[in-house]
Amino acid sequence: MKGKTHAGIGASAFLLICDKVPGKFNAIGLIMVMFASLIPDIDHPKSIINKYILPFKNKKTKTVIYSCLGLTVLWLDYLYVGEPALKALGITFIFISLSSHRNGLTHSLVGMIIFTLIAGYIGKVYHVNNVVYYFMIGYGMHLICDMCTKMGVPLFYPFIKKKYKFPLTYKVSSKSGNLLEDFLMIIGIVYTIYRLPGIL
């Protein structure tokens, strides 16, 4: 599924359930849900996030950059900070450097838990409330959406490497797949227009 579709579906899901989330609707929450919706694709060199991180959009560059980021975070944490969340972030960067798209940590429940805990720690440090809820909504919706595709996701990685998907799936980047994603985006926009006046 395309990054913009993930972000759009994440935003629509947040608008749908924001009344039941601590903090209700707010702009920071919406932005964080959309950002979390993009995080799982960080293992793809051409993802929206890597568009701004990687100087060259290929697997070798991704491996080098994220390995260096991971080792740097671990080294700085060892020297100055000593926080478990930073250790987890450094190790996660190294996992990202070694993962191929949808075959590893980022598209699993373990990945969702790790990224959510790291985001929650950062939110606590900077006094941003309810970050854990925002990340779980965005990240969780990404995994659910990718289970609608023929590739599926390794939901229980690294314990089980099998990929899981729903009975009805579509092929990403196919003509019918693109039409379906465009349709979902239109539905999301219509729902947003309908929903926003009631929660602002």
TrEMBL record:
Keywords of the record, alphabetical order, are:
Hydrolase, Membrane, Transmembrane, Transmembrane helix
Q: Transmembrane segments in this chain: where?
A: 63-79, 108-126, 132-157, 178-194
Q: Which GO terms describe its molecular function?
A: hydrolase activity
Q: Which Pfam families match?
A: YdjM (PF04307)
Q: Does the keyword Heme apply?
A: no
Give the source's domain of life in one word.
Answer: Bacteria
Coiled-coil spans in chain: none
PANTHER family, sorted: INNER MEMBRANE PROTEIN YBCI-RELATED
Protein name, entry field: Metal-dependent hydrolase
Originating species:
Clostridium brassicae
